[in-house]
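Quick one, probably user error.
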C-alpha cells in the first residue's frame, strides 16, 4: 500500500488540489525556494561542527561546553517547532520561509562575532528559530502549491537541501577558514542567507487564500494574485487518527534524531582525534555522507509515494543505521578507511529517513493542518538532536573515547526500527 492510502486514512484528508497553473520557470523557482530554505535553515548547526577544533581553541572551551552551547540551537528549535507550525498555518508559507532564512542568517553573524561560550550559545539559540521553522514552512508550501503525483520527488528534493548544506559546509568551510579565518567564513554564510531571504520575499508570488472548506484555493487564471491573509484564524482540533499518526512518527523522530544529532556533530571531531585525519579529510568524509543523502532522499521519497509504505521504508532505514554505527566502531578497531563506507551507508539511510517522514505528513494530514503536524514531529526530531548531541559531548569528555557513544546510538537505531515495524502493523495510515 502506498502513501496514497495514507491520505484516505483520516476523515478529512486532503482532497487532490488542482494544478496551480505555474509556469516551468515558476516551478523551478519553487524548487529553489524549498531547497534554499532547507539548506540555510539548519546550516547554523552544521558550521560549528565542521570547525569544532577551531572554535574550541579560539574560545578556550571544553568539548562538553562546546556541545552545550550548540545544543541551545536544537533546544530552541524543538520548543519553537510546534508554535512555528501554527504560525505557518496562520501567516502562510511565503512569509514563513523568509523568516526562517533571515533568523538563520542573523544567527550565523552572531556566531562570527562570538568571543566566549555565552555569545556562541545565544547566537546558536537564535538560529534555532529557523531550524525549527524550516520543515513546517516547506511542508506547507508543498501541500499548497504542489499537486499529488509530484510531491514525492519534490519532498525528497527539498529534504536533500539539508544534505547539500552538509556537503557545502564540509567542503568549503575548512578552505574558507584557512584563507580568511573562521569568523569570516561564518560571516560569508550569514550574508548569503540574508540576501537569499530578500530575494525570495521579492520574487515569490503571494500565498493562496483558503476556500470555504479550508483547502487552498488555487489561482485561476494562473496570473491571478490573492492578498496574503491568515490561513487558519482559529485552531482546528485534530482527529484521533491524526493524533495517533503524528505521535508514531514523532517518537521515531526522537530516537533517530538523537543518532543524527550526535553523529553529525562529532563525526568530524572523531576522525581528527581518534583516526588522526586532517580537518580537510574529516570534512570530506562528512561531505560524502551529505552528497549521498542528497540523492537518496529524492529516491526514498519517490519510492515511498509510489511503491513502499512509509513504515516499511523507515524500518529499513533505521536498521541500516545500526550497520553504520558498527562501521564507526570498526573504524577505530579495524581500519580507519571504514569511515568512508560508514559515510555512504549513513547518507543512504540514517540521513535520508526524514524525507520519508515529511512526505508521510504531507500526504497523510489535511493541508490546513500540515504546518501544525510538521511542527509536532519536528519537536520530537529536534528534541532528539538536542539530547543526542549533548549526551554525546559529555560522554566523550568524561571517557575520552567515542566507542560508547556509537554503541548507544546503535541501540537507539535498533529501537527505532522495531517501532517502525510496529507502526506498519497498526493500521492503514502508514
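Nope, works fine. Designed sequence:
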Amino acid at each position: 500500500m502506498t502513501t496514497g492510502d495514507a491520505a484516505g486514512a483520516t476523515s478529512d484528508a486532503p482532497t487532490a488540489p488542482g494544478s496551480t497553473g505555474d509556469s516551468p520557470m515558476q516551478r523551478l523557482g519553487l524548487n529553489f525556494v524549498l531547497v534554499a530554505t532547507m539548506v540555510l535553515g539548519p546550516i547554523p548547526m552544521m558550521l560549528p561542527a565542521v570547525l569544532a577544533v577551531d572554535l574550541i581553541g579560539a574560545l578556550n572551551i571544553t568539548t562538553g561546553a562546546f556541545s552545550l552551547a550548540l545544543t541551545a540551537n536544537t533546544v530552541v528549535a524543538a520548543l519553537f517547532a510546534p508554535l512555528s507550525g501554527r504560525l505557518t498555518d496562520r501567516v502562510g508559507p511565503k512569509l514563513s520561509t523568509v523568516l526562517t532564512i533571515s533568523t538563520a542568517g542573523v544567527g550565523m553573524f552572531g556566531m562570527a562575532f562570538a568571543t566566549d561560550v555565552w555569545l556562541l550559545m545565544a547566537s546558536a539559540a537564535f538560529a534555532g528559530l529557523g531550524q525549527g521553522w524550516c520543515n513546517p514552512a516547506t511542508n506547507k508550501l508543498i501541500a499548497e502549491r504542489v499537486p499529488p503525483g509530484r510531491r514525492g520527488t519534490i519532498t525528497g528534493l527539498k529534504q536533500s537541501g539539508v544534505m547539500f548544506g552538509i556537503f557545502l559546509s564540509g567542503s568549503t568551510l575548512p578552505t574558507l577558514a584557512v584563507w580568511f579565518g573562521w569568523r569570516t567564513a561564518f560571516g560569508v554564510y550569514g550574508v548569503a542567507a540574508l540576501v537569499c531571504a530578500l530575494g525570495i520575499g521579492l520574487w515569490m508570488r503571494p500565498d493562496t487564500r483558503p476556500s470555504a472548506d479550508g483547502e487552498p484555493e488555487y489561482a485561476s487564471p494562473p496570473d491571478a494574485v490573492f492578498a496574503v491573509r491568515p490561513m487558519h484564524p482559529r485552531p482546528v482540533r485534530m482527529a484521533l487518527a491524526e493524533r495517533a499518526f503524528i505521535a508514531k512518527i514523532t517518537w521515531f523522530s526522537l530516537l533517530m534524531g538523537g543518532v543524527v544529532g550526535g553523529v553529525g556533530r562529532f563525526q568530524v571531531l572523531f576522525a581528527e582525534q581518534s583516526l588522526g585525519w586532517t580537518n580537510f579529510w574529516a570534512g570530506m568524509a562528512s561531505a560524502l555522507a551529505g552528497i549521498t543523502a542528497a540523492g537518496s532522499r529524492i529516491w526514498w521519497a519517490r519510492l515511498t509515494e509510489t511503491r513502499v509504505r512509509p513504515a516499511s521504508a523507515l524500518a529499513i532505514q533505521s536498521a541500516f543505521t545500526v550497520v553504520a554505527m558498527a562501521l564507526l566502531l570498526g573504524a577505530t578497531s579495524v581500519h580507519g578507511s571504514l569511515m568512508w563506507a560508514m559515510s555512504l551507508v549513513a547518507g543512504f539511510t540514517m540521513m535520508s529517513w526524514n524525507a520519508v517522514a515529511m512526505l508521510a505528513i504531507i500526504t497523510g494530514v489535511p493541508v490546513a493542518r500540515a504546518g501544525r503536524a510538521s511542527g509536532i514531529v519536528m519537536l520530537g526530531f529536534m528534541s532528539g538532536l538536542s539530547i543526542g548531541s549533548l549526551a554525546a559531548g559529555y560522554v566523550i569528555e568524561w571517557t575520552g573515547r567515542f566507542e560508547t557513544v556509537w554503541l548507544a546510538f546503535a541501540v537507539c537505531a535498533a529501537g527505532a526500527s522495531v517501532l517502525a515495524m510496529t507502526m506498519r502493523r497498526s493500521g492503514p495510515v502508514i
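Confidence is low (pLDDT under 50) at residues 1-20, 217-233, 425-429.
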